[in-house]
Amino acid sequence: MTSPHRADQLSVIITGATGMVGEGVLLECLESPLVARVLMINRRPSPRQHAKLSELIVPNFLEIDSYRDQLAGYDACFFCAGVSSRGMSETLYNHLTYNTTVRFAKTLCAVNPHTTFIYVSGALTDSSEKGRVMWARIKGRTENALLRCGFEHAYNFRPGFMRPTRGQQNIHGYYKLIGSLYPVLRLLAPNHVSTMRQVGRAMINAAAKGYPRPILEIRDINTLAAA
């Protein structure tokens, strides 16, 4: 059981905590004094335990409406769940990305519209929904729909390459291969890279302090992380 928290601390929902981005954001939330408690909503159980942490298993996010009672009382939702479009048809990717995310968000908004909803999208997402790149169109469609859900505050994060936090277990092979190049990438292209720590801190700061734009590119994320 978590201890009572101060009024200026956040109660946070995180999805995708068994993936790389979600795990990195979770670790930052567990360390942050601004976060009092965290509810992981996962499709499968996580072995991670912490005094701040609880878990809700929802095998199919399209059925999130059945768990409405467990969603009440949270200040923010960091939606980090997602799938790669590699080898996937547009119909299936749209179902797993747009349908699942928007259904989850609409249910949460109906329970508590004052929740700050933050969606992890990606660099080069297509807000016009008309470009040639399939994943970018669907991510853009998802972003646009989330901003219309009715949340008091909603943000779309568009990170690029992210250096994992020390101790992370769920790291993509690609990131393991080029992670050692991060110092060089940061020197040559500082507005194209972040650390997972920066992404997590930026989410917490967006929920605690807000941000003037609903879409945060890499530069915005790194700026907000230091706020």
Q: Could you provide a short overview of the structure?
A:
Helices cover 37% and strands 18% of the residues. By secondary structure, it is α/β, with parallel strands linked by helices.
Tally of helical segments: 7
State the low-pLDDT regions, or none: none
The total count of strands amounts to 9
Shape: globular
Report the structural category: alpha/beta
| Rg from Cα | 17 Å
Question: Mean pLDDT, rounded to whole units?
Answer: 92
Task: Write out the strand line-up for the largest beta sheet, numbering strands in chain order.
Answer: 3-2-1-4-5-6-9
Helix content: 25-40%
H/E series, N to C? EHEEEHEHEEHHEHEH
State the distance separating the first and last CA atoms. 31 Å
Main β-sheet description:
7 strands, parallel
Beta-strand percentage range: 15-25%
Oligomer: single chain
Write a structural description.
With 227 residues, this protein is α/β, with parallel strands linked by helices. The protein has helices spanning 20-31, 90-111, 134-147, 173-178, 182-188, 196-209, 218-225, and strands at residues 10-15, 35-42, 53-57, 76-79, 116-120, 153-157, 161-163, 193-195, 215-216. The strands form 2 sheets. Strands 3-2-1-4-5-6-9 form a 7-stranded parallel sheet, sandwiched between helices. A two-stranded parallel ribbon has the order 7-8. Helix 1 (20-31) crosses helix 6, helix 2 runs parallel beside helix 3 (134-147) and helix 6 (196-209) packs across helix 7. The protein is globular, with a radius of gyration of 17 Å.
